[in-house]
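2024-03-11 09:14:02 INFO receiving multi-entity request
2024-03-11 09:14:02 INFO entity count = two
2024-03-11 09:14:03 INFO echoing inputs for audit
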Amino acid sequence: QVQLQESGPGLVKPSQTLSLTCTVSGGSIRSGTYYWSWIRQPAGKGLEWIGRIYSSGSTSHNPSLKSRATISVDTSKNQFSLKLSSVTAADTAVYYCVRDGGTFDYWGQGTLVTVSS
Amino acid sequence: DIQMTQSPSTLSASVGDRVTITCRASQSISNWLAWYQQKPGKAPNLLIYKASSLQSGVPARFSGSGSGTEFTLTISSLQPDDFATYYCQQYNDYSPLTFGGGTKVEIK
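2024-03-11 09:21:47 INFO inference complete, emitting structure
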């Protein structure tokens, strides 16, 4: 059974960089069968896909984030990470890491990140 | 971007009702559509992929149909566990992957 777990600070100051890591267990990122994505959800609102990464390091991102998002992978640790720069209050959301085969079949529990001074 | 529009945004129904949710794409996505269920405080759960294929472990009362730009999710007989918010998602165009705005199914 594949499991994903997000980790990182729950509070980030405006203009700073949000950093989250997702640890995958029960499956190998290195296998190359899937992409690995980040999705976020502001309180009471819908889902927004942030971007994805393949085991090779190839990435794609949502243009709406205007290049603020950087996704990286560490196959030796079976982890992938998200960095979101120049955050504002609008980036306050629950952030999920997910296994991405076009559809999202395994999700982390989500982690709330609040942007506030 | 491909815009996904769900209707209604809120639906009030009773246990045992047949419920239908619609999702429209701004351009054709063939059958590259998925449906998710989300309960408060939890991550979404994949119900349907490729418009009409039932994900393993999902009850058979859930079904999906459609192709091109118009899709439906049907719950044949609503159960107490089904009160939740439902999202559609297109994966025809990966730049970006997009979701509908959600449909909240409430108790009537």
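2024-03-11 09:21:48 INFO post-check: The first strand of chain A starts at residue 3 and ends at 7.
2024-03-11 09:21:48 INFO post-check: Chain A touches chain B at residues 37, 46-49, 52, 60-64, 96, 102-105, 107-110 (CB under 8 Å).
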